[in-house]
Structure formats: C-alpha cells, structure tokens
Structures
1.
Amino acid sequence: MAKQLREYTWDEVKNWLVIDSRVYDVTKFMSLHPGGAHVLSDKNVAGQDATDAFFALHRQEVLQRPQYSRLQIGTIKGEIALVKYAPEELSQVPYAEPSWLASGYFSPYYTENHRQFQKAMRKFFVEVVAPDAQACEDNGKRLSQAVVDKLAELNIIAMRFGPGKHLKGLTLMGGIVKPEEFDYFHESIVLAELGRLGTRGYYDGFLAGDTIGLPPVLNFGSPEIQKMVVPDVLQGKKFICLAITEAFAGSDVSGLQTYAYKDGNDWVINGTKKWITNGMFADWFTTGCRTDTGFTVILIPRIEGVETRPIKTGYSPTAGTAFVTFDNVRVPLSHTLGGEGKGMNVILSNFNHERWMMCCVMLRTQRLIVEECLKWSQQRQVFGKPLNAQAVIRNKLALMISRVEAAQNWLENITYQMNHSYKEQSDKLAGPIGFLKQFATRTGRATAGDATLIFGGRGITTTGMGKLIENYHRGSPFDAILGGAEDVLGDLGVRQAMKKMPKNARL
Ligand SMILES: Cc1cc2nc3c(=O)[nH]c(=O)nc-3n(C[C@H](O)[C@H](O)[C@H](O)COP(=O)(O)OP(=O)(O)OC[C@H]3O[C@@H](n4cnc5c(N)ncnc54)[C@H](O)[C@@H]3O)c2cc1C
C-alpha cells in the first residue's frame, strides 16, 4: 500500500529536510549519510529549502531509489515540485532531442508512425533496459537473459538487422509498425534509445555480436545453415559473433593466420582471434580463415577445440570481449559462408550497416552529453555565478551543439538514401558512411574532452554527477577504432571519390 504523505508548513519541518517541496525525515538516516551526518544538520540545510544544496551534489535519480524515497513523509503545503523525474518523456532541454522530436520543428524524413514507435521504444528502454544497462556496466556481467527474452518477444533483435525478409510474419513492437513498413529510420530509433543510456560497454554487450555475426549467415548461409542458426538468434536463445581480427590482422585483413584445411567433408581450423565482441558468451563464431583458395568465412559453433578468454579493455566486461582460440576444430564443409575464397565479399557486405549503426548510437550518446553539459553548467555555481556565465564555457557548448547537429543532419540524409537504394549502398554510400563515422568519432572525442573540462573532477569520476561524462570519455575512443579505424575510413571515402572522378575533370 502506498504511504500516506502529509502536507506540512515550513514551521513544522525544522528538523527535517526539504528538497524541491518534498519533506524527508532523515533523523534515522543521518548517521548513514555518505557525506557525514553534520551535512544534514547544518543550519543552512535542516528545516530550510535544501533544493540547491541537494542538486549541487546529487543526480535527480538518487531521490527515486527506494532507500531514499521511503524517507519522504510529505510535501510543503501550497508548493509544487519543480524538478520532474520523467526519463521516458521527451526532454525540454534545447538540443537534448534531435530536432525531429523537438517541439516546433519539422522533418521531411519522419512520419507519425516513427513518432509512435519512438515513444514506445523509449518507454521500453527506460523501464526494461536502463536498469540492466547500469547494473551490467558496473558489475561487468553480460546483459540479463530476462532482457534478451523481452527483446525477442517484441522482435527487437530482428529489427536490428534492418528492413528485409527476416521480418516477414513478425509482430514488431506489439504491432506498432508492419514488417513491410519497417525502414532504416525505425532501426535508427532503436539504436538511438540504446545510445541514450550512455553505457558504452553495455552497448556492445547488447548483442552487437549478433548484428555483425548474423548478416553473413542471413545473406550467404545455405537454407540448412540458416534454419539451424537464424531462428534461435532472433529469439534470443543463442548468440553469434564476428571473428575476423587477429594479432597480425586488424585494419589489414590480409595478415590473417587462422588456417582452415579440408579433411574429407570437414574443415579443420587452427588459429586465434582477438577482441571478439560478445565472444565470451557466443554460441557461434562467423570466422575469417585463410584457406588454400584464399580468404574464406566459416561458421564455427562453440564445440570441442574452441576456447574463449576475456580481454580486459577500458570499457565494461559486459561487452564480453574475447580472445578466441581454435585448436583442431572440425566443422562440415557446408558451414562455408559465401563460397570458398570469397570471404572478402561476405565481410564487406555488412560493413556499411555496421558503421551506420555505430553512428546512430554514438551520435545519440553525444547528444546526451550535450544535455548533461547544458544542465550542469546551469546548476553549478563557481565564483558566485552559474558556470554558463563564463564565455569560455558557452563557447565549448556552442561547439558541442554544432558538432552533434551537423552529424545528425548528415546521418538522416544517409539513412534516407539507405531507404531508397540499399542495393547501391556499397557503391554510393560506403564513402559517405566512412566519412560520417570519421566525423562522428572525431567530434565525439572533442566533445568528450570539452565535457570533461566542464564537469571538472566529476567528469573523471565513475559515479555521481559526472558518471555519464566519465563513461563517454572512456568509451568514445572505442568508436574511433571498432568497425574500421577513423583514419582508414576517411581514406576509404577519398579513395571512393577518386574512383568516381570524371577523367576529363580539369580546373
Ligand atoms: C573492444 C574491441 C572490440 C572489437 N570487436 C571486434 C569483433 O567483434 N570482431 C572483429 O573481428 N574485430 C573486432 N575488433 C577489432 C577491430 O576491428 C580492430 O581493432 C580494428 O579493425 C583496427 O585494427 P588494429 O587494432 O589491429 O589496428 P591496426 O590495424 O594495427 O591499425 C592501427 C592504426 O593504424 C592506422 N592505420 C592502419 N591502417 C591504415 C591505413 N590504411 N590508412 C591510415 N591509417 C591506418 C589507424 O589509425 C589505426 O587505428 C574489436 C576491437 C576492439 C578494441
């Protein structure tokens, strides 16, 4: 039964704490207060309006935690709370939402259906995913099966492979969007809500391996292989990852040393793979191998001879980053994806989608960082003024906002092209997607640096006010390496443009 809250006058609350018109009886909690009991009995706090003092030190979600919310005994008569805790609603902070969601702005790209879909997706992410994201980011465990089951129930796992025949007959998000109407803007909404959580390790742990490991099976696997793998992955019963990189083969895949040779009707595979996302919990490994006919992609189940060990990186182990060894692993030749010696086509075919997905997530996190900085620079007082009274801080905010807005507009344009010319993606869009990813990761790191300065010590502290800034500062370099290193992608874009230069172009 909900606790009855009383209304109090200011005269009645002398020994208690008032935060944003809510009255808290902290007498029993004082000795437990992490900042010391004296803070709560200070004459400027006890029985006074402690709102500013509280929000100078705590994030608003602290008040929602059961151990603190149960201390509330009432409200101040005639006053209403100013700070509304409503993470599922659209933020009213300028630039905190992309302009298509901000009131008073228009977009040529998004329909009413996208808006409905976004609303439902945000509610789902706030209620179901966010608590798991924070817990796993901190404890390093993989995302919980309960969340995976819910993702499968709403067919969100399937939606992460974009529009296509794999959606046929599925009920998407309880029926909000029909499979044949699902487009890349819908998918970008799923990714944006993931990015808005601000937990970089969890983002990769949130089945990033599936999103890069399954497309080669969907596009190049035999019907038997697809039947064996696809339904279980889409239903969240099994997990898959992409295992290409090795110690001597990163940007340059030609250095691959994992070797597969034929023995009767089997491949026998030996070698190692490095930094394999979700490898720690994957059941299947879509693996790049050197064979006598060239580069071949082979689907390897977690069977005898396959071992995975965690690699410690700067972000949370919830990503399941693995060092994988294959020791005389035997799989049938029918596990070849895309034909012998044709592995490069298989791998290249999903690069654009992978990089575009990364842009969707990272730009939404970048926007979250802008929101954090706008809020903090308004509430933090220095030298008797809010932080945003300093021109140097406003200049940082101006650059942050411009960077994320520029990239968002570019992303929407590319997404629109994807909706119209998926087949031509590699020809037309590989360059622009490469450039966008390079731009987004460079601007992301610039914004991470500026945000850290705005937050000071809090910006490099993993809990409390600056925790999202710290996570972003630590996580944004990952975006610059994974899915194609920043410089490599810029170079790819220019080389693509050079190929299309008219031979007769002259100054
Ligand atoms: C956390 C994490 C997760 C990952 N997940 C996966 C995964 O799931 N599956 C998988 O197969 N791989 C994965 N990778 C590997 C990732 O794709 C590679 O790290 C990336 O391709 C770069 O390779 P490298 O680290 O060997 O760097 P290198 O290839 O050694 O390059 C180092 C740097 O040299 C520069 N450089 C290299 N070549 C060029 C060039 N031609 N032009 C200009 N500059 C260049 C770039 O700046 C680059 O950053 C992951 C990596 C990490 C760190």
Note: The mean pLDDT is 95.
2.
Amino acid sequence: MEISLNNGFKMPMMGLGVAGMRKDEIKDIITNAIQIGYRHFDCAADYKNEAEVGEALAEALESGLVKREELFITSKLWNSDHGHVVEACKDSLKKLQLQYLDLYLVHFPIPTKHTVKPAVNQIETHPYFQRESLVRFCQKHEICVTAHTPLGGAAVNPQVFGSIYNVIQDPLLEKVANKYGRSPAQIALRWGIQRNTVVIPKSSKLKRLEENFQVFDFELKQEDMDLIKNIDKKYRTNLISTVAWGIDIYA
Ligand SMILES: NC(=O)c1ccc[n+]([C@@H]2O[C@H](COP(=O)([O-])OP(=O)(O)OC[C@H]3O[C@@H](n4cnc5c(N)ncnc54)[C@H](OP(=O)(O)O)[C@@H]3O)[C@@H](O)[C@H]2O)c1
C-alpha cells in the first residue's frame, strides 16, 4: 500500500526504521525484511549505520532480490550539516551505495522561514501521542505525515528514554487486539495507516518484522478508531530537549 506525495512520487505506507540496529545484524534484518515485502527503509546519517545498510542493499540489488526502483530509501541531514547539504547528501549516498535517495529529510528542522513546501513531515506520533491537529494540518496542506516511533518505541526502550508508559501494553489496545485476533503492535500500526500516516516501526527480530508487516489484511472499524482516540496521553517519548541543544526542535 502506497501514499501519493505532493511531488508526484509514491511512498510505501509501511517502512522499516533502522535506528538503533546493531551493525552486525543489519545485513540479515534488511535481507529478511525485503523477503517479507518491506520496500521502504528509513535511514539517517545520525544512525551511524548507513555503510552497513548500504552493504545489505547492494547485496540485495546485485543478487536480484529487489530492483532499485522498487525501493524507497530515506536519509536525513544531520544538525551539524545544515551549512553543507550537498556534501552531506553525497556522503549518505556513498555510504548507502546508491545513486539517488527517494526522500531526504532535515532530521531536526529549526524554526525559520521556508519557501519550499515539504513532501513529508516525519514526526513522532502513536496512540499515546496522537497530535491530531498537526496531522490534520499537514494532510490539509498535502504534506504526508510519517509516524516515527509508531509503537511508542521509546517506551519499550525505557533504558534509553526513561519512559513510563508502554503503548503496546495499553489495556484498550490489548482489548481491540483480542477482538481482531491481532497483536497490540499490529493494532497501533493499522491505526496509524488508517489515519493516512506512513508508519516506520523498527524491529531487529524476524518474527516482529513479519508481524508488523501483516497489517494490510484487516481494517479497524470506525468505533475502534474512535476508542483509540480516547487513549491519547499527549505523551512524547523522544525527549530530545532533555538531551541537548538549547533550541526548540520540531520532530
Ligand atoms: N526523525 C526522527 O527524529 C526519528 C526519531 C525516532 C525514530 N525515528 C525513526 O522511527 C523508527 C522507529 O522508531 P523507534 O525504534 O524509536 O520506535 P518503534 O518502532 O515505535 O519501536 C521500536 C521498539 O519496539 C520493539 N518492537 C518492534 N516491533 C514490535 C512488536 N511487534 N511487538 C513488540 N515490540 C516490538 C522493538 O524491539 P525489537 O527490535 O527487539 O523488536 C524496539 O524496541 C526509527 O528506527 C527511525 O527510523 C525517527
């Protein structure tokens, strides 16, 4: 399933986030993911694994597992590279062993006047951080929203973010999951897709790569979409402001 962007290109609504993957696991994960059907990979210079992702992609392309034009590859401009975008982009391309990217995001945009409408706004959003008005604003202006951390992932990584809530253990999500015979993670992802947002969960586990991809063969009823609306806690897990920089950031 794909979404049309305002520049005429299409983006698969399910992507694999590669942040935090162990370098020695990446080749297997990417190969397995392509075999499962993932075509969209969310990368970034700051994830410091572009070279390993690039090796895995090169092998998949050379072996004929997938064609370049079937893939949608995103990378991101890091904060210290705002002054030399072309060089940073070329560096990502070299590491990823690609001739072109499908999407190049500013990893952490800072407030300034922009004259070009972006095709995609990648933001944290999941059932505990729904950001309904921002999602609607973007969609009204034909800016595709990509939901990063769509499982509230930092909450399942409390050692990294010190989170207290775990989205995929929410009792309501568990109840809805039982109703559809799915997992709470699948319900969170399907909810994201039905909001017309692209979702990019990360998993290093084969079983979960499969589980997260199996969200296109069922549909949540409106009554369940409405129930999930009620569990919003306006809870941001990516608390970047606590780690750095002293400026307002938007992600
Ligand atoms: N633009 C930005 O500033 C930004 C910020 C954050 C994230 N991102 C992007 O979003 C992607 C995803 O973010 P994220 O990793 O923070 O959060 P996430 O995808 O919401 O959650 C990932 C966590 O959930 C676990 N998980 C995955 N599938 C699961 C399942 N079916 N059941 C139970 N647990 C499951 C994973 O563990 P296992 O790996 O052990 O399965 C991992 O700990 C990143 O890789 C990155 O590409 C972008």
Note: The longest strand covers residues 72-77.
